[in-house]
Amino acid sequence: MIADLERVYQRSKQADKELKDLVAATGTTLMDLPGIGPSGAARLLVEVGDVTRFPDRGHFASWNGTAPIDASSGDQVRHRLSRAGNRQINRVLHIMATVQLRRPTEGRAYFDRKKAAGKTSMEAMRALKRRLSDIVYRQMINDATAALATGPGGHRGTSTNSSVTSSHPHAGSSEKSLPEPADNKLRVSTSMAP
User: Which N-terminal stretch is annotated as signal sequence (predicted)?
Assistant: First the structure.
């Protein structure tokens, strides 16, 4: 039984290493964020897909279930966590928040400031998860912008519209890449400013 457990442990360790290598090969910088490991980064990449489909960080937060829901009654103004949204991404953000609360990070300092302002632990956690959602969104937008700047071939200036890649090569004396179409730009909201 101990030998079986050792084999399972070694396989798990090897799978973690392979996943880390695969995530790193995508060029993402999500694992640089405190609390996001290879499995969290992989889950974000798979579930989110093209992050530019979200016009701004508010839409992303609504999609992942970290946007607060108004639960006010009378003079009492309150918000609660949403039970809707993508639960898998919400779980990644919850793990990220939990890891940050265990260490002296910016997330811990933010949580402590919310508690000092009179928020309950649940309210402070809701606010922290929303803030982390914004950070993840910004990081994914930055990664997408960097990928767009380097082009599809990994080098600046390459293009899928190049005469070399077309099934009908363009006649001309230059083998330089053609410029990208104007509609291929990322939509980045001005409300994202740090």
Answer: none
Which strand (E) or helix (H) includes residue 80?
strand 79-80
Answer yes or no: is pLDDT of 105 > 50.
yes
Q: Is the pLDDT of residue 167 over 60?
A: no
Residue 106 lies in domain: 27-145
Q: Could you tell me if residue 53 is inside a domain?
A: yes
Can you tell me the distance from the alpha carbon of 146 to that of 149, in angstroms, rounded to the nearest whole number? 5
123 located within any domain: yes
How far are the Cα atoms of 8, 39, 78, 102, 163 from residue 129, in angstroms, in the given order?
34, 18, 16, 15, 47
Cβ(186)–Cβ(148) below 8 Å = yes
| Domains contained in the chain, number | 1
Q: Give domain status of residue 125, yes or no.
A: yes
Tokens of 190: 């001005």
Evaluate whether 176 touches 170 at the Cβ level (below 8 Å).
no
